[in-house]
Amino acid sequence: MFSCSSGFPILLVLVTLNVCQHGYSQDKGEFEVTSSAGILLFDKSLSFERSPTLGLGAGYGITNFLQLDLAFLFSPTQQSISLAASKLKARVSFYSYSLNVSLSKNLPFHCFRPFVKAGVGGVIFQTRDVTLDLGGGNAIRVDGQTDHKLTLLFSGGIALLLSKRLSLIMEYRMYVFRLQRVLENGIQTERVWSNNSYLGLGLGVSF
Fold it and tell me: With DSSP H G I counted as helix, E B as strand and the rest as coil, what are the percentages for the chain, rounded to 5?
């Protein structure tokens, strides 16, 4: 006779297998909405601190293999730049949006569905609360600016089916865009590609 402690793992396995047999939620002609949270790791050229993120998304299954989706991301971060005789500190709000094409495929039992994405969109840096520390207790406030850049998005991850309509999504994204980097002489600049990484966990609901 099974006790409650020994029977629960067996029951969990049976339930999982039963859910997996129903297949992944987003199929051809279905919509999916997602919410996510994670961490954003900025390119060292930006001098931004890593920061928490919140994301929203919406997708449509063109086929069982091909999906089209929109993705939005918000992240509050801070920037610190040491100048010759002063230090610049700023609070920055990072926003991103992109239109993506996703390719995915069910694995055996249809419980796991790995995917890759590629897309285009934009990133917005909204600078606020800028302080220029001149040293000796002297500091001045500088007006913030908003910068908008076109971006490329590359992504990969895996979706785990929790129920017929609910899935847990683990994802890595890379945001790539051009920026002006100040050279070591502090005067000249050069245009470089900036690679920024996102690691997140989300929930998807299809209907």
Answer: 10, 65, 20
